[in-house]
Automatic annotation (TrEMBL):
It is an enzyme of class 3 (hydrolase). InterPro entries: Ribosomal_Su5_D2-typ_SF, Ribsml_uS5_D2-typ_fold_subgr, RNase_P, RNase_P_CS. GO terms for cellular component: ribonuclease P complex. SUPFAM superfamilies: Ribosomal protein S5 domain 2-like (SSF54211). HAMAP family: RNase_P. The keyword DNA repair does not apply. This is Ribonuclease P protein component. Residues 112-139 are annotated as: Disordered. It catalyses: Endonucleolytic cleavage of RNA, removing 5'-extranucleotides from tRNA precursor. Its EC number is 3.1.26.5. Keywords: Endonuclease, Hydrolase, Nuclease, RNA-binding, tRNA processing. GO terms for biological process: tRNA 5'-leader removal. Consists of a catalytic RNA component (M1 or rnpB) and a protein subunit.
Length: 146
C-alpha cells in the first residue's frame, strides 16, 4: 500500500473509532468513516498483542494489506477504514482470509455495488417514557419476596 493511503496517526484512529460506524464477522471488525478529502480510501490495521508476538501480528498485517491492495478496485473511495483482526483469523489460509475481509467490507456496504448496511435497533425504548421526574416524595420501592 502506498504511504499516503495508510492511517498511521493516533488522532485518525481515534476520530474513526468515535465518529465512525462498524460491522464485524467472527474474524474481523471494520470501522469506517466517510472522508471526502481523500481520492481513494485510507486503511489502518489493528492487531492486538493478544494475537501473538510481533512476527505473527506483522504477518497478519502484511497479508491484509496485500488482500486490500489486490482488491482496491472493489472498495469505495472517500473512506477511512480500520480493520481489526480477531483471534479466529490466525487459523485462516490466505484465500479464506481474503474471503472473510471482503465479506465484512461487503456486509458494511463499503464495496462497489454492495447495498448500504441495514442498521437494526434492538430493544430501544422511545424517549420520554417512564414515571415523571417529580412524582412526589416516594422513596425507593421495596418488594417482599417470600
Amino acid at each position: 500500500m502506498q504511504r499516503k493511503l495508510r492511517l498511521r496517526n493516533r488522532d485518525d484512529f481515534n476520530r474513526i473509532y468515535r465518529q465512525g460506524q462498524s460491522f464485524a464477522n467472527s474474524q474481523f471488525v471494520v470501522y469506517w468513516r466517510k472522508w471526502p478529502e481523500t481520492e481513494q480510501f485510507r486503511l489502518g490495521i489493528s492487531a492486538s498483542s493478544k494475537l501473538g508476538g510481533a512476527v505473527v501480528r506483522n504477518r497478519l498485517r502484511r497479508m491484509i494489506k496485500e488482500i486490500v491492495r489486490l482488491n482496491a478496485g472493489k472498495i469505495n473511495n472517500g473512506l477511512d477504514l480500520i480493520l481489526i483482526v480477531r483471534k479466529p483469523a490466525l487459523n485462516l489460509s490466505y484465500l479464506e482470509m481474503e474471503k472473510s475481509v471482503l465479506h465484512v467490507l461487503r456486509k458494511a456496504g463499503l464495496t462497489k455495488g454492495s447495498p448500504p448496511p441495514v442498521h437494526k435497533t434492538y430493544g430501544k425504548r422511545p424517549s420520554g417514557g417512564g414515571a415523571p421526574k417529580n412524582s412526589g416524595n416516594r422513596g425507593p420501592r421495596a418488594f417482599l419476596c417470600l
